[in-house]
Amino acid sequence: MAAHLIRRGFLGLLAVCLMTACTSAPAPAAPGNTSAEAMAVVRLFLVRHGEKETGTDPALTPEGAARARALAERLKDEGVTEVWSTQARRTQQTAAPLSVQRGLQVQTYDASTLPAFASWLKDAPGVKLVVGHSNTTDALAALLGADPGPAIAEATEFDRLYVIAIDENDVVRSRIERYGAALPADAE
Fold first, then answer.
1. Coil, helix or strand for 34?
2. Which residues are paired to 164 by β-bridges?
3. Cβ 28 vs Cβ 22: under 8 Å
4. Alpha-carbon separation of residue 163 from 6, 10, 88, 125 (angstroms)
5. Residue 139 — φ and ψ, nearest 5°?
6. Rounded CA gap, 163 and 8, in Å?
7. Torsion angle, CA of 118/121/122/124, rounded to 10 degrees?
8. pLDDT of 4 strictly over 60
9. Cα–Cα distance measured from residue 144 to residue 128, given in angstroms and rounded to the nearest whole number
């Protein structure tokens, strides 16, 4: 419990620091296009892996595989240019349907180096999907300057999708969506 509170406090402090650093005014909208996301230099979609089996390096359950397909369907028209995942089988399997659909290789990142990875994601233009874990996805969102929302429920929450846009002035806009089959009411 104490570790959870410390982690949430750290994420809150980090988010405040990053928000303070991103106070420059946004660039004017391009003529005829007022969508902040359309003007973004970097667009990111962050998710935790789908529902998983038990054991060491578990695979996705049939529900998790269906959620991975739903993620690919949700992102099919977003212009994803890169797909990132940890080495875990469940994250690789969550990333696979979109990578196959887009003809992209799943690139691997090391979750133990999140600050450096977040910095690289912000500096490299493109549209990226990043698949992680319940204890890294909200932390990565905070490092990027997005609102991490409440802690991800490790045992039951598999449908959170962070949608993050970063413009040329490093102004971060984010929202949290849900995707795939609705989770049971008692899971929330």
1. coil
2. 44, 174
3. no
4. 25, 22, 23, 15
5. -65, -40
6. 20
7. 150
8. no
9. 13
Q: For residue 179, give both structure tokens.
A: 């995707």
Q: Which residue matches tokens 């300057």?
A: 145
Return d(Cα 164, Cα 23) in angstroms, integer. 16
Quote the CA–CA distance of 43 and 69 in Å, as a whole number.
Answer: 20
Distant-in-sequence contacts of 135-142, Cβ < 8 A, 24+ apart: 135/7, 136/86, 136/111, 137/46, 137/47, 137/48, 137/162, 138/11, 139/7, 139/11, 139/114, 140/46, 140/114, 141/46, 141/174, 142/11, 142/14, 142/15, 142/18
Report in angstroms the alpha-carbon separations of 92 from 69, 75, 105, 148, 181.
Answer: 13, 16, 11, 23, 20
For the stretch 82-123, pLDDT in tens is 999 999 999 999 999 999 999 999 999 999 999 999 999 999
**Maximum average pLDDT range among 4-8, 12-16, 39-43, 140-144:** 140-144
